[in-house]
Amino acid sequence: MKRLLISTEFKHLCREKVTFIIVIFSAVLAILAFFNGHLFSETQSKVVKTALQSQQDSITTAATQLPERLSTTEPVNWWQDRYDLRAQAFYVMLNYATKPPLAQSPIAIGQADVLPYYFRMLVQEKQQVVQQYDYVHPLNLLLGQFDLSFVLIYLLPLLIIGICFNALSNEQHNGQLRLFLLQGGSASQLLTIQILLRGAIILIPFLLISNLLFVLVRPHIDPAVLLSFTTIALLYCCFWLALCAWVNSRGKSAATNAAILVTCWLSFVVVLPALINTFITHANPTPSRMQYLDSFRAHTDEAKKAAEKTLAQFFQDHPELANANGSRSDFATKKIATISAVEQAMQELDVQYHQIQQAQLDKVMWLKYLSVATLTHSMLVELSGNGLSRHTAFMSQVQMHHQALKSFFAKEIVKANQNGDFSPCKGCNARPTITDLSTLPQFDKHFSTPNVSFTPLFWLILLSMLLIYSTFKNVCTLTRPQATGRRGGHID
Amino acid sequence: MHTQPKRPVIQIDNLVKAFADQTVLQGLSLTVNQGEILALLGPNGAGKTTTINCLLGFLSPDKGRISVAGYCPQENAALVRQQLAYIPEQVALYPRLSGLENLAYFSKVAGVKVADSDFRALLEIVSLPNHAMDKPVSGYSKGMRQKVGIAIALAKKAKVLILDEPTSGLDPSASHEFSQLIQRLARQGVAILMATHDLFRAQEDAHRVAIINKGQLVDTLSYQQLQETQLEAHYLKHIKVGA
């Protein structure tokens, strides 16, 4: 019986022109979305590669040109001298912290276009290096990228609705269901096969093409990631198929079903995420960026005005640098002292920002369960490596790297100053104080990325199961002899 | 021309069915015997279709007893449906499938196991033109659809055939062909209940006629009485009396 129903439903679908349009559309969407994500990631990869190459080139060039610099008698401006610690620290250093896109990045560009993925490190206040971007909470960042996740979350449900809105109800209202039931057929079996086959027509091309493109174009991708992507996509679409089955099982006309399903799509995919977004934004508003910048400028001015006091505080905080004849301090030491003072003064505001981010994140964690679209999208963005988890790990690594660079230069600059390397004699060039740039702290790009949590999938499964259970109950009611109701019964 | 009626296959006893606003069937009792064609006549709203829906198991009666081939349709729907075929005014086939495919599909759903060539033979029996068998049903006339409906009943070897306005909208030739087909089925022992407004076909084809009005049986005519009566005048007399 199942084989008969499948083959007949397949015949129906094959003879509908719209089926071919939908299959082609699904395939085209997969190709378009993949390449959109892939090209975006490639651009990021190139930028990261170029940055790292220029960093490597600067080390090589410095090593090659060192003899020339040592033998020169021409005057050299220290702020342009790559062999001067101060120039390296504040102006010419090519040292990058990078977050290269992962192989699975095209799944969901997500936040990758908003969050920074590389930093050129200099010894400056960290507020100028690693905190120069507005924080945007995750839901705000899930909107609008034409990538695989966008197609899956926004467009595939529409295609599913487009092809499934009249399953069973078509037969019910045209009379075939009556004949089918009188021939001893099972309405729930018919509905199940119709929904599954129609879903397969949309999902198979999408999944086949997207997985195939990943294997061909991004061969380094971990098969487990592709499996996770496929599982998430299947379960998300299962929810929509179950919803279609449930709506169809209620015995309304195809037009009513379409209206209900489109309303559901709008609610889950557009309205609920927007409502959650608005609620979070208003419950924990992000402080003004202007306020942050104003505070930063005020603290910088204050620290510069009180230069001597700042320097004294710096040596009090770093007694290891304040050894013999430490009283003689140059521009560079004062600058580093100022940077540390500003960072300390800004700490309170930084903590405040962090707390607000955390409060928003906590709300997102629970409220995303209200919409299957938000829930699935969050998982895909995290799976792609463009989510907040990997970014947080990256930013933490960047801060550590910034701190390492600052400590390195502070120590070396104070030492060089104490040695008199910056002004060996009146009017002569400073001595080269850093000759091997490879000794600079390098960014460790192998920062740990938290694993994606698949717990939300159980929620999707639960919702789908509830819908399926309710569908079978509805179908039983629909086909059972009616004691009351319309004169013709439910099966006209 | 007509075979003699045998044992009762459809039995309706004191059937009552009410909907929220009105009582549609008020103690209706009917019997259709094996090999008999019973024409069920009545004005619109008399309760013909409600009676059929109760027989098909789509409605539960409020009172009374129904038996189709020995089973109650509400309690043993699956068993009743094995024995029963139904042809409505518009035979609902899948428009994109051919007549042959529709026949094969609905027959296989009923568990009929025959070769595809036998399905073609069935369509030949019901006189569906050869050139039409493989064409989509969307291009079929109403008469051709009715023929496919009959072929589905034939394939199923149903013991009971229920027809709801089967000749409505058919041209005289198609209507004649249709009546020949159901008479052939009756000769094979199928009990046929035909709800119709077509008094001519009822007089021509039926072994008995039952006239209902406002959910009650108002008269029955035997085959002998049918031959001796002007059915139209008789029918109108009862309907006016009942009005």
Structure explained in plain terms:
The complex is a heterodimer of chains A (492) and B (243). With 492 residues, chain A is mainly alpha-helical. Chain A is built from 16 helices and two strands. In chain A, strands 1-2 form a two-stranded antiparallel sheet. Chain A is elongated and about 110 Å long. With 243 residues, chain B is of the alpha/beta class. Chain B has a domain at 8-91 and 158-242: P-loop containing nucleotide triphosphate hydrolases (Rossmann fold). Chain B contains ten helices and nine strands. In chain B, the strands form two sheets. Chain B has a six-stranded mixed β-sheet with strand order 5-6-7-3-8-9, with helices on both faces. In chain B, helix 3 (99-109) packs across helix 4 (116-125) and helix 6 runs parallel beside helix 7. The longest helix of chain B has 16 residues, at 172-187. The chains are: A mainly alpha (492), B alpha/beta (243). At the A-B interface, helix 1 and helix 7 of A face helix 1, helix 2, strand 5 and helix 3 of B.
Summarize it.
By secondary structure, chain A is an all-alpha fold.
What's the SSE blueprint?
The complex is a heterodimer of chains A (492) and B (243).
Chain A: H1 2-14, H2 17-71, H3 85-92, E1 96-98, E2 118-120, H4 126-129, H5 148-164, H6 169-174, H7 176-182, H8 187-217, H9 223-248, H10 254-283, H11 289-305, H12 307-317, H13 331-367, H14 372-384, H15 388-419, H16 456-479
Antiparallel strand pairs in A: 1-2
Helix pairs in contact in A: 1-8, 2-5, 2-8, 5-8, 5-9, 5-10, 5-14, 8-9, 9-10, 9-14, 9-16, 10-13, 11-13, 12-13
Chain B: E1 8-18, E2 23-33, E3 37-41, H1 48-56, E4 63-68, H2 77-83, E5 84-87, H3 99-109, H4 116-125, H5 130-133, H6 142-156, E6 160-164, H7 172-187, E7 191-196, H8 199-205, E8 208-213, E9 216-221, H9 223-228, H10 231-242
Parallel strand pairs in B: 3-7, 3-8, 5-6, 6-7
Antiparallel strand pairs in B: 1-2, 1-4, 8-9
Helix pairs in contact in B: 3-4, 3-6, 4-6, 6-7
Protein name (chain A): DUF3526 domain-containing protein
Keywords (chain A): Membrane, Transmembrane, Transmembrane helix
Transmembrane segments (chain A): 20-40, 148-168, 195-217, 223-246, 258-280, 454-472
